[in-house]
Write a structure and sequence with these properties.
The structure holds two protein chains of two kinds. Chain A is α+β, with helices and mostly antiparallel strands. Helices cover about 15% and strands about 45% of the residues of chain A. Chain B contains 29 helices and twelve strands. The relative contact order of chain B is 0.12. The chains are: A alpha+beta, B alpha+beta.
Chain lengths: ~280, ~800
Amino acid sequence: MYFTTPGSTRRLARSLVFLLVPALALVISTPLWASLDKLEQLHDPVQKGLAIAHETERRDAGFGDYVVEAEMILMQNDQVLSEREFFSKVLEISGDGDHSVNVFRSPRDVEGTAILIHSHGLKPDDQWLYLPAIKRVKRISTRSKSGPFVGSEFAYEDISTWQPEKYGYRFLKSDRVDDVDCFLVENTPLYEDSGYSKLHEWVDKTIFRPRRIDYFDRKGDLLKTLRFEDYRQYQGQWWRPGRMIMTNHQTGRVTQLLWKDYQFATGLTEADLAQSKLNRLQ
Amino acid sequence: MSGRYFRFVTEHPIAVLLLALLVLAATAAGIPRLSFKSDLRIYFSPENPQILSLDRMEQTYTKVDNVLFVLAPADGVFNNRVLALVQELTTNAWQIPFSSRVDSITNYKHSYAEGDDIVVDDLVLDAGSLNPEQLAAIRAIALDDPLLRNRAISPDGKVTGINVTINIPKGKELSSVPVVVAHVRALADDIRARYPDIDLYLSGVVMMDNAFAESSERDMQTLVPAMLVLALTLMGLIMGSLSASLVALLVLTLSIVAAMGLAGWLGILLNPVSINAPNIILTIAICDCVHLLAGYLLARRNGENKKTAMQHSLQSNLKPVLITSVTTGIGFLCLNTSEAPPFRDLGNITALGVLTALFFSLTLLPALMMLLRTKVTATGSSRLQSWLDQLAVAITRHPARFALGSLLLAAGLSAGIVKNSLNDEFVKYFDDSIEFRQHTDFTTEHLTGIYYIDYAIASPADGGVNDPDYLQTLDDFTQWLRAQGEVLHVNSITDIYRRLNRNMHGDDPAFARLPQSRELAAQYLLMYEMSLPYGLDLRDRINGSKDASRVTATLKTLSSAEVLAFDGRVQEWLQAHGENIQFSEGTGLTIMFAHIGMRNITSMLTGTAIALVVISLLLVLIFRSFKYGLLSLLPNLLPALVAFGIWGLLVGQVGMALSVVAALTLGIVVDDTVHIISRYLHARRLLGYDARAAVRYTFARVGKALVITSIALAGGFAVLGFSSFEINAGMGSLTALAIALALLLDLTLLPAVLVLVDRGRERSTDSTEEPAAVSTPATIPASTAASTPTTGEPIGAITS
């Protein structure tokens, strides 16, 4: 549901998915409608919310790995404050959260700075940072994920790997975002130290990817809205947005996150995303 | 035309009464549209350079409005019980409406090295289970940290603060502040109930905004009734008729209601200053009622019937009442030049009140008096009258002595003006009876200051906050600020850079210095930001494009002059060290209020000058004499000057409120002058008296009325002097003083000068005129003089 991909958590589910993929490829529309019909028949909102989450995970499971270029534009009152560029490498890990690394290309001061994250669902993530200025890798121990990502309107928790067990779910209603039919689901963070009391997520009924997320602060007031635009399908299967726009309603600041050059199945391995390799990721 | 109306009022009082009630209903319908605004920013016009600077600062960084919880436990902060409470309150504070950040010693982001790892975590994690060693370690870290000491923790570890940043969206302040405060107080009350041994205080900008509203409310509940009682008592004494007094009271009340309704229709905002408009309208409207009713009752005592008595009273009082209303209105309208919008609102509402008071005095009052049965009893203080007569005799005998004496005294007292220093310390706007003041005083004494100044320091380079030269200058600036006697605390990012550098080097104290390269600094910052939780980010310190940062200096309690002097020294330092930086002027409420006094005085000088010119021209027209118009300047201007002089000798501090007093009093005190000079001219021009006799005639005719109305006016403003809100209290006291002085000068200096000016010219006729003059007014017993029905015809006679 979020900008990196969901990592599957259950081996069984995963292997099932692998079996289903060829079948899906053969008759694309039939199982799609079948699963949607089944979902629509659920009446218990909690059950339905969870089912939507699992379907979302199922649809995206098995992507393996990908590499993508990102550009972040920080804005206030339609005025660009600053820009950052980085690339991300993401590796799907069976039985745990994804491993990912973000390497900065700009601004010049932080060029080559790399953030390696092994995400772990409800447990705090492992984080390492490579600082080229001192050519050292430091492990950063913190429980906080709710702070802003490099001064943007995205919090770390907004861009860390989504895993179904991180939230409690409740289906609210069917709704539309820009003429796209969506499920509106309320997600409640179950991990510690979240900056949010809840999220409202609009999940596209066709591609099972988020179209919009509203973030509510700890006292339940609307804080931010994230919109996902320019979805494209890669390898005939994996849907990824080309643009994400985060608007902070309380400060009026906006961050645009542009994604380009998605490459799937690049052959990444766990060894490539180990802390010892951080200094060689340029 | 006016004569026809007066006959109509007396013949058809019910029709007039209905008309008046219709007008009342139409105007009063505007009352629900009134809204009350009470934050600190209302004192600044939108174009005020300091508020523009503050807006820019808040746009770039985060807003600075806050609520500060201060905990003072009997046995210090660093024990499990108190730290657990701080932790609990830190978590609960996130539930306060519009909260966007909570800072306390427990959630303070402490970073340290652990082997090769860097740990960033809350300074206090599980307060309940800390052992004595851990408590001691936390205490040592907190008391040593320059970002916490004197801000979140007192240096002796006995008092701690939990600061909640409140970000109320623009335009929602009206309804939001009470909601925030209600939530804050509920949290506080809950803690007080569970921890009776821990003293809890509440301070911060939001609490202050609320205190403005609450003190206004309290003023309304105490001062308005006091004013009504005063008005009723005075009028009862003056008129000796209960029903007449009650009618007058009704007129006063309805004038206020109508004026407030009109203000609602016109969209004028209520605020802690303009909320006093009802009191001032009441005071001023008393004069209209007194003149009309006194004239009516005198005529009745003289045996006239209701209708003719009222017609006479209206006839003779129409012009003086009109003229004094116009001049008073001009004085209040000139408050529109004030730099501080609340005074403009006060001026406009009061001017409306002058208008509505005039309307109801000429409609409702005569109509009701026609419908009511009024018992007329003999009254009047003959002692006052005879004392006035003695004074008149003395003045006419020794005009030079009186003129010179009063002038010298006035000049001497006026010299006290230089003893006034400008001061707007906004915390001291509240007196000791207000909870906010008590709590803030405690906070200032034991924890941290409420006054602070922000300096935005920019680097000329793009993303230059990480530039080593920039950081060095910023750090020098921080250290220099900390060395200043006025400074309690400085919040600057250089402390964070030092600590991170140390952490990166295994907490080796030798590395507690600034990073030596731009890349390193930038990468440290990125690392640090990565580990910060929601709401504790550095955006309140570093701007979005990372080329400027904000340094906040918290100050001890300082006067405006001291604040400006401090800021001056800061600017000097920055100029001298400005090669690597671009810097802003000091920003924030403290600086804004330090400037407001002077800005308001400058703006009000224009307003006072306009009032003076317009009113003087009006007087020249009324008196049909350039000479008397000019002469009137003396008793009109001197009262404010002398009042400021006495204020300088007794109090010595003036703020933005007092700068409006000169214009405000001008419109009021001119009434006395109008009455005296027009009566004097009537005696001279129509009755043919010489200067001396004319003075005695004037004293006999209007002296008592002037004394009484002045007492009413001064008393009314003196009631305002009891406000718990210094702006209103100061304005009330000083205006009351000026009105009292105006009466004194009108009864001594003005007649003496009139005699002096006119005597020389008429020396030849002196001997022939004098006996007649003395025998006419001076020998009239006070009661007889007072029973002459026409109290105001001279103005009519002169101008018509």
